[in-house]
Fold Ribonuclease PH.
Amino acid sequence: MRPSKRAADELRKVSLERGVARYAEGSCLVKFGETHVLCTASLEERAPPWLRGTGKGWVTAEYAMLPRATHERTRREVTAGKPSGRTQEIQRLIGRSLRSVVDLAAIGEKQIVIDCDVLQADGGTRTAAITGGWVALHDCLQWMRGRSMVSGNPLRDHVAAISCGVAQGVPVLDLDYAEDSSAETDANFVITGAGGLVEVQGTAEGKPFSEEELLAMLRLARQGVGRLIELQKLAVM
């Protein structure tokens, strides 16, 4: 039995609430159970220096965890002078994931920054950030279309992410913290609406996992991401 009493293939309760930040061009408060992440999309009227003159734009991300998002207060990284290695790895993952479904040439020499701030953490913050970040990005691009800043739809597909793991010898979907902290294997899958794999991260925490377990986690991830994309579609209708 999982700590949450969920079935092996059962997601936590997921919600995607749009338009929660008054001033952002796009925003979404995403909840995966007790993990809550505020995602905002901000348009900048300039491309990064290395893209100037190319006609292409950019989508990037920043990620942060509020001091009391966890059981004990975590020091703000700004006071340390630089983001931690974990933070840099996560925000690069979010940026790569969202860029994979955007026609960067279609947005011109502009940059969209997706800020993902973890309000409350209970496992799966990066997967929630990618899933909610897509909604914020969608609304930012719609805002641009409404002002004739882009033509057509630069957003080519959906993208969402989910965690999987092997806990007590059983492949399971969408780990919360209690499960993640004791699982033998922890993996994250980023998958597009068309079923393409954007990124797969997998780590054996106890014993090495088998090919059969990897494929079982992939099947669970496809099922979970399919449900998340259904929720994305409902959110932006």
User: Anything to note?
Assistant: The longest strand covers residues 35-44. DSSP finds four helices and nine strands in the chain. Strands lie at 14-18, 26-32, 35-44, 58-65, 111-120, 159-167, 170-173, 185-192, 197-204.
